[in-house]
Design brief:
Blueprint (H helix, E strand, L loop, with lengths): L1 H26 L4 H32 L10 E6 L3 H15 L3 E6 L1 H9 L6 E3 L3 H9 L9 E5 L2 E6 L14 H5 L4 E4 L5 H12 L3 H4 L3 E4 L2 H9 L5 E5 H6 L3 E6 L9 E6 L6 H10 L5 H6 L3 E2 L2
Helix pairs in contact: 1-2, 2-9, 4-5
């Protein structure tokens, strides 16, 4: 089903481009002005097309991990940046406990809204306090089970073969480093990584110089993919994201005092009735899980 939708989407976009090309070719009358307009429009369409393809690839990565509503076992909704580390931890837990665990990775904002809409989840792990607070205020988690699990660092990444080194400090020339390209980051209005990034750039006094160049992504892994595929020269992601993709390198690390602390809280959802969910949450906060998360670059807060 998914490949069919992708094929239909690509065909529709290509038909749109072909139609535009034919229209300009017929009506141009040989004028340089129209030909130039056609080239600019075509270039713009192809850029949008590539961006759409990147979004589809990132979405498929997440869809591939989405649990079915009727699936048996423990269902975890977790921030996209946790993927490798949480997969490792859950594999250990499944082997020891015998419980089956299904994990859905996406932006914390997206997952919180899905839980609010009634999506079946036993555990929610957010990449910031705000979205956990949101669910708690709406009585959608069990407050006694809430705990702060992990911490992270915020970084700027570039393609792996880049020689760029950024000294991130007040007034640093991020706009110049972009050289007219886009700054990839998760949506700064709602997604935790994007909110942290915007807060840091505002604190450093450079947000206004780059805000027009921001390419907002659905989640932090989609922003990482923009840089990994060279669709953006720079991106703002977590340090653990950079470590997970060999096609990027860290060009600079944000001082921790430039943004709110990066904290991953976890809790049982209010509707969870799976007895194994509480045991999994205890395991994730236990000393046994610590080396798993630390190996992937997270700071363990428990």
């Amino acid at each position: 089903m998914i490949p069919m939708y992708i094929t239909l989407y690509i065909q529709a976009r290509c038909n749109c481009i072909d139609t535009l090309y034919t229209t300009y070719s017929t009506d141009a009358g040989g004028t340089n002005c129209r030909n130039q307009a056609r080239k600019v429009t075509m270039s713009s369409l192809f850029r949008r097309f590539r961006a759409a393809c990147i979004t589809i690839v990132a979405a498929l990565t997440i869809i591939g991990t989405m649990p079915a509503a009727s699936a048996a076992g423990i269902v975890v909704f977790a921030a996209a940046s946790l993927k490798e580390a949480l997969d490792d931890a859950v594999n250990v837990y499944e082997n020891k406990s015998g419980y089956a665990v299904k994990i859905s990775y996406a932006a914390s904002s997206t997952l919180a809204k899905q839980i609010e809409s009634g999506a079946p989840a036993d555990i929610f792990i957010s990449a910031d306090l705000d979205w956990m607070d949101y669910l708690q205020q709406h009585n959608l988690i069990k407050p006694p089970t809430r705990r702060n699990l992990l911490g992270n660092r915020l970084v700027i990444v570039a393609p792996a073969d880049s020689d760029l080194r950024l000294d991130i400090k007040p007034g640093f020339d991020l706009a110049g480093a972009l050289k007219g390209g886009h700054l990839a980051m998760a949506d700064p209005d709602s997604v935790p990584a994007g909110k942290y990034g915007r807060a840091a750039l505002e604190k450093l006094g450079v947000w206004n110089s780059v805000r027009a160049a921001v390419a907002p992504a659905e989640n932090v892994r989609a922003a990482l993919l923009f840089v990994s595929l060279r669709e953006a020269p720079l991106g703002i992601v977590y340090a653990t994201d950079a470590a997970a993709d060999p096609r990027v390198k860290i060009a600079g690390v944000f001082p921790e005092d430039t943004h709110p602390p990066i904290i991953y809280p976890a809790a049982l959802t209010a509707d969870s009735k799976n007895p194994g969910a509480a045991r999994l949450l205890e395991f994730l906060a236990s000393p046994a899980a610590r080396p798993i998360f630390e190996k992937r670059g997270f700071t363990v807060l428990q």
